[in-house]
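hey team, just a heads up i'm posting the complex here instead of the shared drive bc the drive is being weird again. everything in one block, sequence lines first with there labels, then the predicted structure for the whole assembly after. its two chains so it's a bit long, scroll down
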Amino acid sequence: MKIKPSLFLISLFFLSTIYHLPGRQAGLRSNISFAQTFDSASFHIDWGNFNMTSGKKSSANYTMTDTVGQNAPGQYNSAGYVVKSGFQYIYEKSIPFSFAISDLDINFGYLTPNVGSTATNVLTVSTPTSHGYEVIAVANHPLTAIGVNITIPDTLCDSGSCSESTSGLWTNNSTYGFGFNANGSGTTSYFTNSNYFRQFANSSSGENPQICMSENVSVENNSAIITYKVLISPKQPGGTYQNSINFIAIPKY
Amino acid sequence: MPNFNLTLSPSQVEFTLKPSVTIIQAYEVTNNSSQDITLNTEILPWVPVGNNGSVNYLQAATSSDLNFSLANSDLKIGQPFVLKANSKQQLVLKIKTSKEINLSDYYQTFFVYQNQNPLNKNDNFSQATGKIGSHILLSVSNTENISIKAKLESFKIFPKIKDVFFTPITFSGEIKNDSTYFFKTGGKIIITKNDSPVKEITLNNDNVLTNHYRSFSCVDSCKLNTPLWPGKYQVTLKMDENLGIADSSYSFYILPISPLLFILLIVGIIFGIKKIKSSLQVTH
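-- predicted structure starts here --
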């Protein structure tokens, strides 16, 4: 009987995969270590360890933790347990929760009808181990002319449907309003790309502050560029328009 | 240019306490910028939203049975203070529960925020301000050993049938808390093939809040990367014993789709070449 080469190759492949067993992982070996004891006729002193010097030293540029002469320092793992033995292992590396805004003054300069004005700043977040974060944004009110109650309306984007919770494409020079974009770490759930904008939630209208940047894992110096955009119509009355935008950083619980 | 750069530590505290007790928690706020900053403090209650640790402040009610104050001699909550450039300030928060407080969980955030600077009247601008918060999870109970009621709401493997190469297998799931107090998820996803271990994924100790649910996350990643040998794989979800959730088993299959397609392609090419050669010989 003549065997076709294709059938032979396929059969060979199946045989090689069916009988393959991944190798077992090497078991953990435990080391036995003893604390030091000192005995006299009247006293018995137990020492947790027998070292010469230990502690945390620091200078202007460096921090050093050390233990000299300690028995059995190190990390010991077994099913269900992790023992971190030795003073070095007391000092867990953990990043503190930090939040930075690069520039607080977002100046749009002189506003010209049908010409978009943009300004940017950068938000940077670090979070401790096993914590994600979210940055929430809220404005106190829409951009409002000082002394008179005239506002630059929030953008509705080119589609006319973006809001404080939904972003939309905003590239058209005849779409007027005020909005923002976030581009960088933790922003893709909220803005598709740098041409997508949304409104700031306004606390004066009772709107819920909205998340503009978030991640579910711990991060170190993750940043996003916030682009603020204003585009006014020729009918917009002249004046100086201002508002305040609050960025709130909280950890994920 | 003015900027905001604060560190608040710790980022979260969790306490179990009895009614009519006072506890103290020290926070350290650091001004990492090269400018002095005027700060203020506030406490806001929140409720959990979604399944990944998000919160909502507007829907939460303040409890009059919880009292927060600062133990610092020169500061009160809501009182502005100046933090010099590149310096730290310890804020000592005192939390007191009343005698009549309901035995349940209370979730709050301790905020440190920037006081707004006066606006420059000649420019069109928005002024940004920063605020950073640290969560406080309080369980008020008469006993230290709080009973919990956890339920595995869902566990998903995606995809359940896949090729030996390309995209990884992703594990996801949700734990529900049907009790009055929060608890932490914890456990392992153990993947085996032919009774031999392939990978053990450790779940993060995420908080599942009272009468809420949380999708679990993994220490490194909830994914099993390719390439994988073809065959049937067993997945066991082993939650921590204290959660009282029984182990559950699932399976997924890896098929040698792309190698087979590759072999078929090679065979096809060989046959094609042979066929072309033979047809050329016939014409000659």
